[in-house]
Design goal:
This protein is mainly α. It has helices at 13-45, 49-57, 62-89, 96-112, 118-130, 135-167, 175-199, 201-205, 208-220, 223-240, 243-270, 278-291, 303-314, 322-343; strands spanning 92-94, 354-356.
Length: 362
């Protein structure tokens, strides 16, 4: 993958400066939010933020932190597998090593640059360069990967929140927990509606109002946009015609977010948190991760920590400092794997390369 792939050479200077200013602002926002989490503990003990963080990490169970680190690595493997399944659904074959390498590289750019989809642009550059015959379909797999990832996250959050409401209904009396639950269900049902429209598109087109809207859209849209939308619809149809592959993708998404909840649980036990149940970790972690999709800080750092810490406080984490410590350790592992992904920039791609199959995906 060339460094200049798909980067416009005539981009106005003000746009470039604006992007970099936003990235710097996002970095400062992340640092400010992390310091804000540490401030109460630092002021209470009369320490600096750095000393407060160092004291928090003292006396941890290092082997449990190591297992949590390995769990996040396993999540990266599952994420690469999910994207590869989506590529195969579009008839594009990419080696397992290239997909895993690109997943880690994408994680690196998501960590160092503002926006949860920044790394996807790097992955898109590689795929568009090596699958020119199926550029819209290849690029759309990244959109599908994001959609399935977010949908899987919300499905896990919705399922665990149902279990929480059944087993511990009094938790909904907490405003933060109630607000997070309502938002998860609102976004989850919206994404489910999009899935319904994609699956039942052909039947809906037979309805007179839908047919009129489609004819008007074709008359108004430029020819290139119509062709692009047609190919994107074909991509969705390929997914619809591969229900087993879609089921596999959703299963991988669910496993990924269950693993992330398990990682937070391991970190809690490593820092001697004693009150929260595994179910509460599985409720709080997806909700916190969902907040990281806001493109305000690199990788959602700071935002995810603040939301997750608020939920842990609502769940009465004990000692109370672990409500801040667990999200910070979670973010530290995220950053560590992101920096490891940067090393993949110097590793060669697979000798098999990327092959573009012209046959229709099953």
């Amino acid at each position: 993958m060339t460094a200049h792939a798909n980067i416009p050479q005539d981009t106005p200077a003000w746009k470039i400066w604006t992007k970099w200013l936003l990235r710097i602002a996002g970095l400062f926002l992340a640092v400010w939010m992390i310091r804000r989490l540490l401030t109460p503990m630092a002021e209470r003990d009369g320490l600096s933020s750095f000393q407060a963080m160092r004291n928090l990490f003292a006396g941890t169970e290092a082997h449990l932190v190591a297992i949590a680190f390995a769990v996040y690595g396993f999540v990266q493997v599952l994420g690469a597998w999910r994207w590869r399944v989506l590529l195969q659904m579009q008839g594009i074959s990419v080696s397992g090593w290239d997909v895993f390498r690109l997943t880690l590289i994408g994680g690196f750019f998501n960590t160092v640059l503002v926006g949860a989809v920044t790394g996807d642009l790097i992955k898109m550059g590689f795929i568009l360069e090596h699958a020119p015959q199926k550029r819209p379909e290849a690029a759309f797999t990244l959109v599908l990967d994001r959609y399935f990832g977010l949908f899987g996250l919300l499905l896990v959050a919705m399922a665990t929140s149902l279990a929480m409401m059944a087993l511990q209904p009094t938790l909904l009396q907490n405003r933060i927990v109630l607000l997070a639950t309502v938002l998860v269900w609102a976004i989850g049902t919206t994404l489910a509606s999009f899935a319904f429209l994609a699956v039942w598109r052909k039947r809906l087109q037979r309805l007179a109002p839908a047919a009129v809207l489609l004819r008007k859209a074709r008359a108004v849209l430029p020819a290139k946009a119509t062709i692009l939308l047609t190919r994107l619809v074909h991509t969705v149809d390929n997914c619809r015609q591969a229900p087993h592959a879609c089921s596999k993708v959703l299963l991988l998404c669910a496993i990924i977010h269950l693993c992330l909840g398990g990682e937070a649980f391991l970190l809690g036990r490593a820092f001697h948190e004693t009150t929260m149940s595994l179910l509460q970790y599985l409720v709080a972690t997806p909700m916190g991760n969902a907040s990281s999709i806001l493109p305000l800080t690199p990788g959602g750092i700071g935002i995810r920590d603040a939301v997750t810490a608020a939920l842990f406080q609502a769940f009465q984490a004990n000692p109370i400092d672990t409500a801040y410590l667990i999200p910070l350790a979670y973010t530290a592992i995220f950053i560590a794997w992101g920096l490891l992904g940067g090393l993949c920039l110097f590793l060669p791609a697979s000798s098999n390369g990327t092959k573009n199959h012209t046959t229709t995906a099953p």
